[in-house]
Design brief:
Elements: E1 13-14, E2 27-28, H1 39-50, H2 70-78, H3 91-107, E3 119-123, H4 125-147, E4 156-160, H5 165-173, E5 177-181, H6 192-198, E6 203-209, H7 221-235, E7 241-244, H8 252-255, E8 268-274, E9 286-290, E10 302-304, E11 311-313, H9 323-361, E12 364-366, E13 375-380, H10 388-395, E14 404-406, E15 415-420, H11 427-486
Parallel strand pairs: 4-5, 4-6, 6-7, 7-8
Antiparallel strand pairs: 1-2, 3-9, 8-9, 10-11, 12-13, 13-15, 14-15
Length: about 500
């Protein structure tokens, strides 16, 4: 089933004008061509169509990395044909993944000794990582309920309404009730107090977000841990915490090392992070780390022996590329702690400059926080003339992709513009963006004034038309009467 819609016209054939020196026969769009075409023609046709895509570096909607060093690109290209699942054939690649898992586990303060191996796995982004972590929580909860002779058919998970759609997918696909803490105007992340109130004996975990997609804000995982510990003690529950650090996992350790959100908190049993976001790798790679082996049920791990040796695997898919894992290892050893810290600090400084520039326009309310991921989210102070959706659409005329959206449940009346500041979004680009936003605001102001003036003219014209018609009728009648009196016909 094709879920996405086809864009463009409904023509059955592709126009191959730019490749006419190689091929003159139009190509079918939705059927396999009868004959092969020259490689140059195939390249040119596809290349020309892709020109209509947006520019990745000007796509400020995406958290995903859009630039890497040439050396890292070379490593990716040399390993693009390696299937990671063939661990026996590519043992070094497997070793590099294991090194990444251990480096990230130590970064998140996992209780792993120097001679111990951390528990974790590379995934295709944080969506798969969340699915795997959620399955581990569900299975552990089910096993515990079975051992106690209690029902285990109605698991639930507690999150904020600001979670990404991958959590909704997990709940839907694996039949887990999603209990969402609603937001409120001015408070756009999960309230730990309300979250703990929703916890019951069927709750498999509470999911906290370190870096909300909506405004980049960190949720208070430490307070959640304290409140949940107290509730567990009072009720006899054993409800754990998962931290969705997709965006913030490669930011917080470097900029806020004293912030307690990770495995330093006893109830945090697993953490996911996106290597392709602030891990600085092209999509798609993610990671999920568990506190200990006890937090990952053995029955979820499969062992296969038909690829050359006995190999354990815990993934939703089977085959996947090796190149992103290799790129992740490159970034970790290339940058080290200080390198990541410098990049994240530069991103935060650029985000601060962008906030200050938007503040100077006196047209926006900034709703992102100073402590969080490098994201600038804002709403319009005055929406009587136009909305953030109009601003977003107009910015595309200057090639910027800046998303506009409404906040989740109970804060839907707040519409927001959001800019994600990545490593390749320089201070010069930030200055240019502010300039273009000011230009767009001026254009929208002028368009609004023109529309109002035109509307007023139309209203006056309609009113004057009635008056003039009545006056004309009276004048004609007077001329007719006067003409009769003078004998002039």
């Amino acid at each position: 089933m094709v879920i996405s819609k086809t864009t463009g016209d409904n023509e059955e054939y592709l126009d191959s004008t730019f490749a006419s020196r190689y091929v003159r026969t139009p190509l079918p769009r939705f059927k396999l061509p009868e004959k092969p075409i020259p490689k140059e023609a195939a390249y040119q046709i596809i290349h020309d169509e892709l020109l209509l895509d947006g520019r990745p570096r000007l796509n400020l909607a995406s958290f995903v990395t859009t630039w890497m060093e040439p050396e890292c690109n070379k490593l990716m290209m040399t390993s693009v044909n390696k299937n990671y699942v063939d661990m026996d054939e590519y043992p070094v690649t497997t070793e590099l993944q294991n090194r990444c898992v251990n480096i990230i586990a130590h970064l998140f303060n996992a209780p792993v000794g120097d001679e111990e191996a951390a528990v974790g796995v590379g995934t295709v982004g944080s969506s798969e990582a969340i699915m795997l972590a959620g399955l581990a929580f569900k299975r552990k909860w089910q096993n515990k309920r079975k051992a106690e002779g209690k029902p285990y058919d109605k698991p639930n998970i507690v999150t904020g309404a600001n979670v990404q759609v991958c959590w909704e997918k997990f709940a839907n696909y694996f039949e887990v009730e999603l209990k969402e803490v609603k937001l409120s105007e001015g408070y756009y992340v999960m309230d730990p107090l309300q979250a703990v109130e929703l916890v019951d004996e069927n709750t498999i975990c509470v999911a906290a977000i370190l870096g909300s997609t909506m405004n980049g804000e960190f949720e208070d995982v430490k307070l959640l841990n304290e409140l949940l510990t107290k509730k567990n003690k009072e009720t006899g529950f054993d409800t754990p915490i998962h931290v969705d650090a997709a965006s913030g996992g490669f930011v917080a350790p470097f900029l806020y090392p004293d912030l307690e959100w990770d495995f330093r908190l006893p109830l945090v049993k697993s953490i996911n992070v996106s290597g392709h976001k602030y891990g600085l790798v092209y999509p798609g790679v993610g990671w999920v780390i568990w506190r200990s082996k006890e937090d990952l049920p053995d029955e979820l791990i499969f062992n296969i022996n038909y690829l050359g040796s006995d190999q354990p695997t815990f993934t939703l898919n089977f085959s996947k590329g090796s190149s992103q894992i290799i790129a992740q290892y490159y970034q970790l050893i290339r940058l080290g702690f200080e390198g990541y810290k410098d990049i994240m600090q530069n991103c935060m400084d650029t985000a601060k400059a962008l906030k200050e520039g938007l503040d100077k326009t006196e047209r926006f309310n900034i709703i992102s926080k100073d402590i969080g991921v490098p994201v600038v989210a804002c709403s319009l102070k005055d929406t009587s003339k136009y909305t953030v959706f109009d601003v977003s659409e107009s910015l595309r005329n200057y090639q910027w992709i800046v998303p506009a959206y409404t906040m989740p449940a109970n804060a839907e009346n707040i519409a927001v513009l959001r800019v994600v500041v990545r490593e390749d979004f320089s201070r010069n680009l930030a200055v240019r963006l502010i300039s273009d936003i000011e230009r767009v605001l001026a254009e929208l102001d002028a368009a609004h004034v023109t529309a109002v003036d035109e509307n007023q003219k139309q209203v006056k014209k309609r009113k004057r038309s009635v008056t003039e018609t009545q006056s004309e009728m009276v004048n004609k009648w007077k001329r007719f009467v006067n003409g009769k009196k003078t004998g002039v016909c």
